[in-house]
């Protein structure tokens, strides 16, 4: 007996010293080895507890790193979907999952609407916009309690709740267990994070404990990124609306062609660009023949229809860089960058044939419409834009007064 005690004493003393050194390494944030395997009794229990402590500390360090990265991403102005994608990429060693979805409570608190999902299970079955009422639902209860919910057998849950469309969709996608985590800022529920695994019995109380520890920070990060995204989306809509208004301001409201001021500005721009490249610019003045007779015989609505159809046919026959503007009345100005005298005449001739090819539908009245064209090919040093347009207009006058339905070069 005395020999055993003597033998155990050095081992226990050695183990105690080793354990102290082990804790010192852990405290300093350095790697720690496993404790001596031959130790038994109370020190063995201590070893197991210290190993669990090391694992927990390591996990908490990873949690803090992930949260710091998320908070930093919001400070950098990262949008909501980017934050959710980072959660998917970064949280896999904290909470197990093969799918994460995020849904938000509607402004009136009546519905939960899916915003985002990312999955390696299969084709996503619950995508953005999918919405369900909260009243009387299990998700409403989860939000009311503010506690994460575990369902470790989704197939059985669906069998017990056959009316659950969302569960049916997740099972169809390949999910077999789920971990539903409410997002709450202050005391206000803002939404839910859904973690889903392809395996049954994936989630444990430890995952609930982990999420409780990080829930407040994750909720705030998501809410901040959501608000930031709302601001970005609002600004984008404002920019788009300004763009639409600006575009509307330079368009003829009837035909959609550029108005006179806009087409003259574009001509001046085209001439400046051509000067830098040594190119020419084709200028075409076009006029619908006998337009007054259309108004007089068929009415002004028919005249409007003729203007709209002329614009449509002409624009469809032009290149992407070519421009058409309504110069005034039934007269149109076309700007054709990068083409010379022969090419601009050929384009005008093709447009003439396109206009006359088939009758126009003038509101139930079918009528053949023709147009006359005056063309000029100019360089920037040939004169200002107004003078070049005047030259094309003189050529148009000749075309109109020499039989119409023809092309004349100036």
Automatic annotation (TrEMBL):
Give the reaction(s) catalysed.
2 GTP = 3',3'-c-di-GMP + 2 diphosphate
Q: What high-level taxonomic lineage is stated for the organism?
A: Bacteria, Pseudomonadati, Pseudomonadota, Alphaproteobacteria, Hyphomicrobiales
The GGDEF domain extends over 279-410
**Top EC category:** transferase
Q: What is this protein called?
A: diguanylate cyclase
Check the record and name the PANTHER family matching this protein.
Answer: DIGUANYLATE CYCLASE DGCM-RELATED, REGULATORY COMPONENTS OF SENSORY TRANSDUCTION SYSTEM
Q: Which organism is it from?
A: Rhodoplanes azumiensis
Keyword Acetylation recorded: no
- Provide the GO MF annotations for this entry: diguanylate cyclase activity
Which EC number applies?
2.7.7.65
**CDD domains from the xrefs?**
GGDEF
Query: Does the keyword section mention Transit peptide?
Result: no
């Amino acid at each position: 007996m005395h020999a055993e005690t003597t033998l155990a004493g050095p081992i226990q003393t050695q183990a105690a010293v080793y354990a102290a050194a082990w804790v010192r390494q852990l405290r300093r944030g350095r790697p720690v080895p496993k404790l001596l395997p031959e130790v038994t009794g109370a020190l063995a229990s201590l070893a197991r507890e210290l190993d669990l402590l090391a694992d927990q500390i390591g996990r908490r360090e990873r949690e803090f790193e992930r949260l710091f990265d998320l908070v930093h991403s919001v400070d950098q102005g990262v949008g909501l979907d980017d934050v959710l994608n980072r959660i998917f990429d970064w949280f896999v060693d904290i909470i197990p999952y093969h799918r994460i979805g995020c849904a938000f409570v509607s402004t009136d608190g009546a519905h939960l609407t899916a915003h985002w999902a990312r999955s390696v299970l299969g084709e996503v079955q619950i995508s953005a916009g999918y919405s369900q009422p909260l009243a009387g639902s299990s998700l409403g209860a989860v939000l009311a309690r503010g506690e994460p919910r575990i369902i470790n057998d989704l197939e059985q849950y669906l069998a017990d709740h056959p009316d659950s469309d969302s569960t049916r969709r997740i099972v169809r996608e390949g999910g077999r267990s789920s971990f539903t985590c409410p997002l709450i800022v202050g005391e206000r529920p803002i939404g839910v994070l859904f973690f889903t695994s392809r395996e049954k019995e994936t989630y444990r109380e430890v995952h609930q404990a982990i999420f409780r520890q990080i829930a407040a920070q994750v909720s705030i990060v998501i809410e901040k990124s959501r608000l930031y995204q709302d601001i970005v989306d609002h600004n984008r809509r404002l920019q788009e609306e300004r763009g639409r208004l600006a575009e509307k301001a330079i368009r003829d409201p009837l035909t959609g062609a550029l108005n006179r001021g806009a087409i003259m500005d574009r001509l001046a721009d085209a001439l400046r660009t051509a000067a830098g490249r040594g190119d020419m610019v084709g200028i075409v003045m076009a006029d619908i023949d006998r337009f007054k007779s259309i108004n007089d015989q068929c009415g002004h609505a028919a005249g409007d229809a003729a203007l709209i159809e002329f614009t449509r046919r002409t624009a469809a026959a032009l290149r992407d860089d070519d421009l058409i503007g309504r110069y005034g009345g039934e007269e149109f100005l076309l700007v054709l960058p990068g083409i010379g005298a022969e090419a601009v005449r050929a384009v005008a001739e093709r447009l003439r044939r396109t206009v006359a090819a088939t009758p126009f539908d003038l509101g139930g009245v079918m009528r053949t419409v023709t147009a006359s064209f005056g063309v000029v090919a100019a360089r920037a040093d040939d004169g200002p834009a107004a003078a070049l347009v005047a030259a094309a207009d003189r050529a148009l006058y000749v075309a109109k007064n020499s039989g119409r339905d023809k092309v004349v070069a100036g």
